[in-house]
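FORM 12-B: Structure-to-Sequence Request
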């Protein structure tokens, strides 16, 4: 870290450990009403199990989940990682090289699925929720994505050098979970502040999806799942345009540990705004 430049890399030792409180909140704003507010909180103990000159083996241990999900299947999904330890291998820049303990992860997740099947057996209204959860827990790729939400936020700014107040812009391809082919994302990143007295600095980013592409993909998904969402014979041309913007801001220590990271996703369609917030707070 210099007067106007920072390099974000993990400088960590074997046995080093940090604990984070992660808070995830989602809600919907329709006209002037706030609806469907959900919140999940949990702790993650992150410890350095092993390291080489270029790689780290890191344990992410999840514990003490709380949530207010009224849907029992959604509650089980929110609590699925309770007591789980995920062993992650990364390079020094935070690039995911692999997850080492898939057998233990799959065994842990199968217990959640058994509980969900019992709930759905008693109430057929949860059948579709069970199908989604089954796919979510059974797919190795999907679980990587789910774990990757907080992981990607934690490491979002790692691996690059930033100059104070210089804006870095790019168009990148991101995975599309609703259909085939990647989504185009326009992103900008900048170093906002440097706190020399605290050996820390603040970075910010904005990501905006290509609205036309996102709208077409989402409309096709709704068309294919119209019966579940009780949409009838929908006319895709009449559906509103969709926007999706992600904001990330983080204060990081010079050694690479985030002190506080905040992510906010805003998905807007006409007068219906869905907001998903996640905060990662060093304890």
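FORM 12-B RESPONSE
SEQUENCE OUT:
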């Amino acid at each position: 870290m210099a007067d106007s430049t920072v390099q974000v890399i993990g400088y960590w030792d074997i046995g080093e450990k940090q604990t984070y409180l992660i808070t995830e909140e989602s809600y919907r704003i329709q006209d002037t009403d706030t609806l469907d507010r959900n919140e999940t909180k949990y702790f993650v103990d992150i410890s350095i199990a092993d390291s080489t000159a270029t790689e780290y083996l890191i344990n992410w241990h999840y514990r003490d989940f709380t949530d207010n999900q009224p849907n029992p299947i959604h509650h089980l999904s929110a609590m699925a990682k309770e007591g789980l330890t995920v062993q992650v291998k990364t390079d020094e820049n935070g690039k995911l090289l692999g997850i080492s303990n898939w057998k233990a992860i799959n065994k842990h997740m199968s217990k959640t699925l058994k509980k969900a099947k019992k709930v759905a057996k008693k109430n057929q209204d949860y059948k579709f929720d069970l199908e989604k959860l089954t796919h979510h827990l059974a797919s190795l790729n999907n679980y990587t994505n789910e774990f990757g939400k907080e992981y990607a936020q934690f490491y979002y700014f790692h691996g690059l050098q930033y100059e104070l107040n210089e804006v870095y812009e790019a168009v990148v391809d991101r995975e599309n979970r609703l259909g085939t082919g990647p989504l185009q994302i326009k992103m900008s990143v900048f170093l906002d502040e440097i706190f020399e007295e605290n050996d820390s600095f603040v970075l910010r980013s904005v990501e905006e999806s290509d609205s036309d592409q996102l709208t077409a993909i989402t409309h096709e998904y709704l068309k294919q799942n119209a019966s579940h969402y009780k949409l009838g014979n929908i006319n895709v041309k009449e559906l509103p345009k969709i926007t999706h913007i992600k904001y990330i801001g983080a204060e990081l220590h010079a050694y690479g540990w985030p002190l506080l990271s905040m992510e906010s996703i805003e998905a807007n369609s006409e007068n219906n705004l869905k907001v998903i917030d996640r905060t990662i707070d060093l304890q």
